[in-house]
Amino acid sequence: MGDRGWTPVGRDGGYEYSVTTLSVFWPRNEYEKLLSRWPHLSAHVGATWDVHRQQVERHCALVDRAGHKVNQLPGSVAEFEVFLKGKGITAPAADDLFGYPDLRTVTATMASWPPARNTVCWCGSGRKYKQCCRPHGLGTLD
Predict the structure, then answer these.
(1) Where are the domains of the chain?
(2) 23 close to 75: Cβ distance less than 8 angstroms
(3) Region 16-41 average pLDDT
(4) Model-level pTM greater than 0.85?
């Protein structure tokens, strides 16, 4: 039996379903801790803070454009270390970033994306979204 006719978002009889994508972002101070501990991860999270937030913003926009919901979760180096220790990993790779976090143990609040223009930016800067990541993040989506 194939999955012809199935879509990730829609209605099935009386049931409404959708796919929600988790987007982990590293707040600036956590981003700096992450790269000071594991510099080789810069190839996956961005070589600079501005590149990182641009990658996150672009990822969220593309997922949203595909019709999926996006929840953002701030990364934490301390929690990432616990995650790695639980898996017996001493030198994390890209796959470990993709596997983090274990959603069964998440206590941080997730934020839905996109934020309203006048809300506090998702990146943790304290500035309004329209004055922070929105103008810097997207570039072109094509």
Answers:
(1) 19-137
(2) no
(3) 87
(4) no
